[in-house]
Specification:
Number of strands: 2
Radius of gyration: 43 Å
Largest sheet: 2 strands, antiparallel
Oligomer: single chain
Number of helices: 19
Strand content: under 5%
């Protein structure tokens, strides 16, 4: 995807399409390899169910010179309030045709999703009202399913912005549930052990937890100590010659004059490596990604002045002038305090029990349906055998019927079949019998006189 300079507000959308999932950058000395790695990272999926549609719309719009020029002068409000969407009427016919095609493909995809959802819930409908069902999707106009209009672009921008703002909160909630599930499984495992084994296992787990907490000092993200460490260990430069502007240019890997969320998260890799090692049993890589998210949110809160989820060079340089930049406190990692309360864990476990009961009920229903199908299969098999026996008996009767009526049996094609044995018997008479037969009159005498 092509990304433009001097258009940080449009990069808000590009950061969505480029992906907000963090992937550490393995930096090499060669600048070209750095660019290639950055380009590969930009191809990540945002997790939005309309990610591909968003990505393709942005790519098509950027091919239009007029729209691209308007983007260069647009600000955040122009994009968010929909004024930029009105410029869609002036794009080329080829671009509009391609956008229409993209929308029809998206509508078709959503229809298939709706059908699959209805099929999975066993909802029986005589006729599916797609127009009504499509209203639940906010990133396009459901009333017009054939052409891409200004309203579609406005809805796509507003929905992507809102979903991006909610994305971090959803990630935090997902991580909390992951931690509660892990604790629930730990407690259930310990319950299944006898007292001696349980005490031994509890001691082992406690030692692992203490070992995880014994890590070097973690610098606050965005502080001078943290940036100098990256400058020295990652960039291989003299820490005494640290220069914020040069640092910004080095880590603006796609050279768009802003640091997006992905580029920021890559800066925290050295700090995270102090705490997490995938080879260690006590270190959880899911916790590492949650820590990375917390660090990025911390930097954005203190540096991103206009709240566009991007850090410009001006914002970055101003942040280095703040008191906190040089006197930041040590960063508190996740192990400093739990991410959930005991009450939250109890509610979560109750929810798990309810789901388990529901799954048991569904499993029992499926078992009964399976037994019913087996019984029906047996009945059908017995009925099949009865039909086969009836057909066999009918065929046998049809073969026996001609003989019972005194007619010679018929052949396979209906021809009469005579008994060659009877003929042969006549041919094999002895000489005496043959002579007697020859002496018999061929015909009784006619008109003999009657005696009185």
């Amino acid at each position: 995807m092509c990304r433009m300079k001097s258009t940080p507000v449009w990069l808000l959308l590009l950061s969505v399409s480029a992906g907000v999932l963090s992937v550490p950058i393995n930096r090499d000395a060669a600048k070209q390899e750095v660019k290639e790695e950055a380009q590969e990272e930009e191809n990540g999926d945002t997790g939005l169910y309309y990610d591909r549609y968003l990505r393709e719309v942005i790519e098509v719009l950027e091919t239009d010179p007029h729209f691209r020029e308007k983007l260069q002068t647009a600000n955040t409000e122009d994009i968010k309030n929909g004024r930029l969407s009105k410029e869609l009427d002036l794009v080329s016919h080829h671009v509009r045709t391609r956008l229409d095609e993209l929308k029809r493909q998206e509508v078709s995809r959503l229809r298939m999703l709706l059908k699959a959802k209805l099929d999975s819930t066993n909802v029986q409908t005589l006729q599916m009202d797609h127009a009504s069902l499509l209203k639940q999707f906010e990133h396009l106009d459901p009333h017009n399913q054939n052409t891409f209009e200004a309203k579609d672009l406005e809805l796509l921008i507003s929905t992507a912005t809102k979903d991006l703002e909610n994305y971090d909160a959803e990630r935090h909630e997902e991580f909390k549930r992951y931690e509660m599930l892990k604790e629930h499984e730990r407690r259930e495992y310990l319950k299944g052990l006898d007292q001696e084994k349980r005490e031994k296992e509890e001691n082992r787990l406690q030692k692992l937890k203490e070992k995880h907490r014994q890590h070097p000092k973690v610098n606050a993200p965005g502080s001078v100590a943290q940036l100098r460490e990256v400058w020295e260990e990652t960039d291989g430069l003299d820490p005494q010659e640290f220069n914020p502007k040069t640092f910004f240019k080095l880590h603006d890997t796609n050279e768009d004059d802003v640091l997006d969320e992905q580029e920021l998260e890559a800066l925290f890799t050295k700090e995270l490596e102090k705490v997490y090692d995938p080879k260690n049993e006590e270190d959880d890589m899911m916790e590492m990604e949650e820590e990375r998210l917390r660090m990025r949110e911390h930097v954005m809160k203190n540096v991103d002045a206009n709240k566009d989820r991007l850090v410009s060079l001006d914002e970055f340089l101003k942040s280095t002038e703040k008191k906190e930049f040089n006197n930041a406190k040590e960063w508190e990692t996740l192990d400093a305090k739990p991410v959930y309360t005991e009450e939250e864990l109890q509610r979560f476990e109750a929810e798990l029990r309810d789901k388990e009961e529901e799954l048991k009920r569904k499993a029992e229903t499926l078992r009964q349906e399976q037994e019913l199908l087996k019984e029906r299969g047996k009945a059908l098999e017995a009925q099949k055998r009865e039909y086969q026996q009836a057909v066999l008996e009918m065929s046998q009767r049809q073969r026996e019927q001609p003989a019972a009526d005194g007619h010679p049996p018929a052949g396979p094609n209906g021809e009469l079949k005579f008994q060659p044995a009877a003929q042969k018997a006549g041919e094999e008479k002895g000489p005496a019998e043959q002579e007697v037969q020859n002496n018999l009159p061929a015909e009784p005498p006619q008109n003999l006189p009657q005696h009185t």
